[in-house]
Amino acid sequence: MALRVNGYLIDKIKYNGAVITNSTQRLRTCIIDLENETVRYTLEGDETVYTLGISIDETNQSITYTWPDGFECVVTVYGSSGSD
Questions:
Q1: 49, 41 in Cβ contact below 8 A?
Q2: How far apart are CA 73 and CA 78, in angstroms?
Q3: Which pLDDT tens digit goes with each residue over 20-79?
Q4: Cα–Cα distance measured from residue 36 to residue 14, given in angstroms and rounded to the nearest whole number
Q5: Predicted confidence (pLDDT) at residue 83 exceeds the cutoff of 60
Q6: Sequence ranges of the domains in the chain
């Protein structure tokens, strides 16, 4: 599906530093730095290093990811850790 803005055909959009294209961009690299509470990652076909903030809530078994524009996503993990 082609990307269009105001009726014009375009090949990519830059938004908050991210490149949005009409093709899927999978995660290429990801470094989770617990000490500095950050996640640094790159997407395939894009050399830009993106950074998210993270905070871990061990009580609720969740991780909150925070994007540079303030958007937050909470990921909750359920189940056994496998260690007894």
A1: yes
A2: 16
A3: 666 667 889 999 999 999 999 998 878 889 999 999 998 889 999 998 889 999 999 887
A4: 27
A5: no
A6: 3-76
Contact by Cβ (8 Å): 39, 28: no
**Phi-psi region at 36: left, alpha or beta (left = phi > 0; alpha = psi -120 to 50):** alpha
> What is the distance between the alpha carbons of residues 44 and 63, in angstroms, rounded to a whole number?
24
- Specify whether the CB–CB gap between 74 and 62 falls below 8 A: yes
The structure tokens listed for 73 are 């996503």
**pTM score:** 0.62
Q: Are 65 and 53 in contact (CB under 8 A)?
A: yes
**Residue 19 pLDDT grade (very low, low, confident, very high; cuts 50, 70, 90):** low
Among 18, 11, 12, 68, smallest CA distance to 47 is for 18
